[in-house]
Specification:
Belongs to the helicase family. RecQ subfamily. It is built from 22 helices and 18 strands. The protein is α/β, with parallel strands linked by helices. The strands form four sheets. Strands 3-4-2-5-6-1-7 form a seven-stranded parallel sheet, sandwiched between helices. Strands 8, 9, 10, 11, 12, 13 and 14 form a seven-stranded parallel sheet that branches. Strand 3, helix 5 and strand 4 form a beta-alpha-beta unit. Helix 14 packs antiparallel against helix 15 and helix 17 packs parallel to helix 22. It binds adenosine-5'-diphosphate, magnesium ion (MG) and zinc ion.
């Protein structure tokens, strides 16, 4: 299954727009020309099918640096890949030859120049090459700036080997496309994939969680009689939400991977057949669903990544008629997703990529401008403001939150980076709870400096700080918030931060805030670090020891 490989080998939770169709066509052995923007994810479209097919996939790539990157990444994921180029050492080449001989190699990268060498064709025949992938296929076009004469040999090679060929490029103009088809496919007509990624009929909207169950019930009630999906992070929540919807007079069923296969098939069947049924589901729901008139998709919890988000909302409005979406997210979601990544089995480079993908989703959730612009730009496509998202409907209110962010960072630092958002907010708002008093945090210089904002507003500030990766929960400290290097320039007063005002944040009475000495806090940061390091080294004090001011 392509989605299993996607998860197990690449660690991705969903295909990007367009990828799945291309992967399926290439895996089925069809000739393919795929046009996708830069950064859209073309490599995966030939790498994944290579693992699904017998034999070796030959990848023609114009640059040694590109080949090195891709082969390195594949090997790191446990895929047998190698390159034969002038830039690789003899030892590296020997390794590739031996993997070719014992039939273990799945992807063989080569520069087009190599095709001119006499021994290459017999070598590829012996190796059992069963498919060719051409990356940067516009290099075959004499019109572009990247013309590489040796790309012209590929057509010949394809004929000689008699295997399917898949060509990939980001250059979409008709002339180049025509040339690629003529020169690489030799008169055969490939299946062409040239889709914009946009689904303009889908309305995009996000909201901070503020009583999520009521928010979802309201959203569904406003669309009564229409088929919709509510995605939930847990199995339990699919059940409680379905029950709540039914109690509110909205016919709903739940769906998750823990249900018997029989029950799942029945739920899928009912959803396909019945009008106006709601499914409260985990992400297990949707793969096999082919219902064109799903009118809305809501996320009761933050999805895993931008890719998952787009795949899940993309199930709405396949008939092209207007469809609505609403994605809820809160501080807890961000904490949960961050710890899931940190506690996962993946290695560090994959973890940091996962954090990056989560950051991209959070950037979308708290974006100040048009959602669709942010979303499509992530997939490499540029567009004008869409006129069909919550922010195009009504631009959000922004405010200069630099001081608020500095106060929050200081409160985290001064309490030793050992506490979660609730406690940090208690310190900021001057709430002398038992826990605050027990730790002496009512004596901190940051105690009460944030009385100008309500607790709800502080939740919004900290959520957006998490979203911008200014602070992160540390799984080794039960999710306590710790500041990241990105926060240092803010603490030092070198960058300002503008945040969205949560429309939902509840207002509180506003006593005068206490002043705070900011420079002192910036210094405190490095002083604390140095002290912790020095003490740890000198006395072997465990890293979790908290130092008072
Ligand atoms: P292109 O060749 O189209 O410019 P790449 O193949 O280099 O794009 O992919 C761009 C980035 O997108 C890479 O970092 C890749 O790991 C990432 N990527 C590709 N597909 C997915 C996916 N389904 N989910 C998450 N990330 C993806
Ligand atoms: Mg590429
Ligand atoms: Zn918009």
């Amino acid at each position: 299954m392509p989605t299993d490989l996607l998860r197990e080998v690449w660690g991705f939770d969903a295909f990007r727009p367009g990828q799945q169709e291309i992967v399926e066509a290439v895996a089925a052995g069809r000739d393919v020309l795929a046009i996708m923007p830069t950064g859209g994810g073309k490599s995966l479209c030939f790498q994944l099918p290579a693992l699904m097919r017998d034999g070796v996939t030959l990848v023609i790539s114009p640059l040694i640096a590109l080949m090195r990157d891709q082969v390195g990444a594949l090997k790191a994921s446990g895929v047998a890949a190698g390159a034969l180029t002038s830039g690789h050492t003899e030892a590296e080449s020997d390794e590739v030859f031996s993997a070719l001989r014992d039939g273990s190699l799945k992807l063989l990268y080569m520069a087009p120049e190599r095709l001119a060498a006499g021994g290459t064709l017999p070598l590829l025949r012996r190796a059992g090459v069963s498919a060719i992938a051409v990356d940067e296929a516009h290099c075959v076009s004499a019109w572009g700036h990247d013309f590489r004469p040796d790309y012209l040999r590929i057509g010949e090679l394809r004929r000689a080997l008699g295997v399917p060929l898949a060509a990939f490029t980001a250059t979409a103009d008709a002339e180049t496309r025509g040339e690629i088809i003529a020169r690489l496919f030799d008169g055969a007509v490939p299946q062409v994939f040239l889709h914009g990624f946009d689904r303009p009929n889908i309305h995009l909207a996000f909201a901070a969680k503020d009583g999520p169950r009521a928010q979802i019930l309201d959203f569904a009630a406003a669309r009564a009689g229409q088929s919709g999906i509510v995605y939930c992070a847990t199995r339990a929540r699919t059940e409680t939400l379905a029950a709540a919807l039914n109690a509110a007079g909205q016919p709903a069923i739940s769906y998750h991977g823990g249900m018997e296969a029989e029950a799942r098939r029945e739920a899928e069947g009912r959803f396909q057949r019945e009008d106006g049924l709601i499914v409260a589901a985990t992400v297990a729901f949707g793969m096999g669903i082919d219902k064109p008139d799903i009118r809305w998709v809501a996320h009761a919890d933050l999805p895993k990544s931008i890719e998952s988000y787009y795949q899940e909302i993309g199930r709405a409005g396949r008939d092209g008629a207007p469809a609505e979406t609403l994605t809820l997210f809160g501080t807890d979601d961000i904490r949960l997703r961050r710890s899931q990544i940190d506690e996962g089995l993946a290695d560090d480079s994959r973890k940091s990529a996962d954090h990056g993908r989560l950051n991209a989703l959070l950037g979308l959730a708290d974006a100040p401008g048009c959602r669709r612009q942010v979303l499509l730009r992530y997939f490499g496509e540029d567009t004008a403001p869409c006129g069909n998202c919550d922010h195009c409907d009504r631009p959000p209110e922004l405010w200069d939150a630099t001081e608020a962010v500095r106060k929050a960072l200081s409160a985290m630092l001064r309490s030793g980076e050992w506490f979660g958002a609730g406690h940090v907010i208690d310190i900021l708002t001057g709430s002398a709870t038992e826990k605050v008093k027990a730790r002496g945090h009512d004596q901190l210089p940051t105690f009460g400096v944030g009385r100008d904002l309500s607790k709800g507003e502080w939740q919004g500030v900290i959520r957006q700080m998490l979203g911008r990766d200014l602070c992160r929960p540390d799984p080794e400290r039960h999710g306590a918030l710790r500041i990241t290097p990105d926060a240092h320039p803010v603490l030092r007063g070198e960058t300002s931060v503008s945040l969205k005002r949560d429309a939902l944040a509840k207002r509180a009475p506003r006593p005068e805030p206490r002043a705070m000495v900011a420079e002192e806090d910036a210094g405190l940061l490095s002083a604390l670090k140095a002290r912790r390091r020095a003490l740890a080294e000198a006395q072997r004090v465990p890293a979790y020891v908290v130092f008072p001011d």
